[in-house]
Amino acid sequence: MTLQSPSRIQRIDDLDRPALEQSLEQDGSAIIRNLLSATQCQRLSALYAEPGLFRSKVIMARHGFGRGEYQYFRYPLPDLIQRLRQSLYPVLVPLANRWNASMGLAVRYPSEHADFLQRCHAAGQTRPTPLLLQYGPQDYNCLHQDLYGEQVFPLQVAILLSEPGRDFSGGEFVLTEQRPRMQSRPQVIDLKQGDAVVFAVHQRPVKGVRGYYRVNMRHGVSRVHDGRRHTLGIIFHDAQ
Q1: pTM value?
Q2: What is the secondary structure of the chain as a DSSP string?
Q3: Domains, in order of start, for the chain
Q4: Which residues contact 232 (CB under 8 A, 6 or more apart)?
Q5: Which of the four pLDDT bands, split at 50, 70 and 90, describes residue 11?
Q6: Please, which pLDDT band fits residue 2 given cuts at 50, 70 and 90?
Q7: Per-residue burial over 33-55, b = 16 or more CB atoms within 10 Å of its CB, e = otherwise
Q8: Entry's Pfam families (predicted)?
């Protein structure tokens, strides 16, 4: 099954990067509309039923993560997922490096994803992290952070593969921002089929009157009322 479409990779090349970075600086998240076509979304969702493509399956309720399930892909990744990972990473590297500088962190990220993966593998993080998530009625995902070892790229991407109102209802993507000595700020991200949300994995810098301070980010999915919801997660660091 071929899932790659040159026009959709070109879609990444044609992104309004200043607008993307401005949204991430302001909210810790940004939406890329229509990153994938409906056909690509349907084909990716269908991969969930092919166990040979995955290295592990997680039933969320067994671990207190919520309800629903997800599977991590094994290497080699399906072609479209590999291309998305390789193409999105360099778009986000400049902001990732600025964020680390603002937070006083010494780590800087190489311009190519393959070089960053070498760093992950040298640290013992060799297991791929792109995943497919599947939710049914009453399923949800608790607020969490996708940290899998010492090497962490500070941004990740989730792509909604199902169409709200047709394939499922409820199941909104939720972000929370925990600010020092303040109450947490929630965001509900409005996504349609094929839309991607880019968001902070762990911490991001926010400019205050005395310079930058760090806020802690978590993400999750609200309860699905009915139907079935599939999501593709693109995480750029590998796992131990």
Answers
A1: 0.94
A2: -----HHHHHHHHT--HHHHHHHHHHHSEEEETT-S-HHHHHHHHHGGG-GGGEEEEEEHHHHTSEESEEEEEPSSPPHHHHHHHHHHHHHHHHHHHHHHHHTT------SSHHHHHHHHHHTT--B---EEEEE-TT-EEEEE----SS---SEEEEEE-S-BTTTEEE--EEEEEE-TTS--EEEEE---TT-EEEEESSEEEEEETTEEEEEEEEEEEPPEEEE-EEEEEE-SS-B-
A3: 16-234 (2.60.120.620)
A4: 44, 81, 130, 131, 132, 133, 158, 159, 161
A5: confident
A6: very low
A7: eebbeeebbbbbbebbeeeebbe
A8: Oxygenase-NA
Phi, then psi, of 117 in degrees rounded to 5: -65, -35
Q: Which two tokens stand for residue 2?
A: 């071929």
- The 10s digit of each residue's pLDDT in 123-159 is 999 999 999 999 999 999 999 999 999 999 999 999 9
Alpha carbons 28 and 48: distance in angstroms, whole number: 29
Sequence-distant (6+) residues with CB within 8 A of 15 are: 32, 91
Instruction: Give the pLDDT band (50/70/90) at residue 6.
Output: very low
pLDDT tens readout for residues 59-114? 999 999 999 999 999 999 999 999 999 999 999 999 999 999 999 999 999 999 99
- Separation between Cα atoms, residue 40 and residue 90, nearest integer Å: 22
Residue for token digits 């010492």? 150
Structure tokens at 209: 């009157």
Taking Cα atoms as reference points, which of 90, 73, 68, 86 lies closest to residue 168? 68
